[in-house]
Amino acid sequence: MHDAIVHPGGARMRWVELPGAAPARVYVHGLGATSAPYYAAVAAHPLLPRRRSLLIDLLGFGISDCPEDFTYTLEAHADALAEALRKAGVAGASVIAHSMGGAVAIDLAARHPELVAGLILVDANLDPYSPALVLPGGSGIASYTEEEFVAEGWKEVRDRVGPHWWSTMRLADLRGLHRTAAGLAKGTTPPMRELLMGLPIPRAYLHPVDTEPQAADGLRAAGVEVLAVPESGHNIMLDNPEAFVHALLPRLP
């Protein structure tokens, strides 16, 4: 296990690392998730050329620390991730990011362009949404106030998301989880979609066959590859790891 201090209070981000040559690959999890369980099988897949690979957990999630005075906005997550990557000696990485992590990765590439040479987004969030909506990706977390969620709301979310997602969500700090969900609903300025379309690096967006992203033609016109992965749902890397790896292969150095 590796770690780096990324917060003035001494909070550390931690990651599991697979050794290999540069350029590195950085795997970023979604809301209520953690990177190693979601990505280990594909990161170590024999078809992928061996590269240094960091399966990293954002602050508030998984094996990383949960500082109380961290804002947990998308921008704050991106800056903390950038600090961890710099301290790990990573630059010009391929970033593979799922769901909420995709929104963080877009912001990372926009705010810290020297760190990211290419983006592969996995059914990622591109647009803000009303916190009142109980969307599948957000599980309705942002529909509660922070105090409501910490007091009792998390129990309703636990029952709603089911045992698979809860197996990693239960590791998250409740306030950090809520603040991240609220930040995801709010989005970035400019919005993630606009940032993504303006990035001057190779970009791909992987999605399940039945759920093409909104305004996909606009993404394609901006040079973003939009690719359907068969026999998969939102968790593409878990649902169909072989197809996921074959989608990654031509898009990774």
TrEMBL record:
A Pfam family the protein falls into: Abhydrolase_1
Domain AB hydrolase-1 residues, every copy: 26-134
UniProt-listed Gene3D superfamilies: alpha/beta hydrolase
GO molecular function: catalytic activity
Superkingdom field: Bacteria
Name of the protein this chain belongs to: Pimeloyl-ACP methyl ester carboxylesterase
Organism annotation: Nonomuraea solani
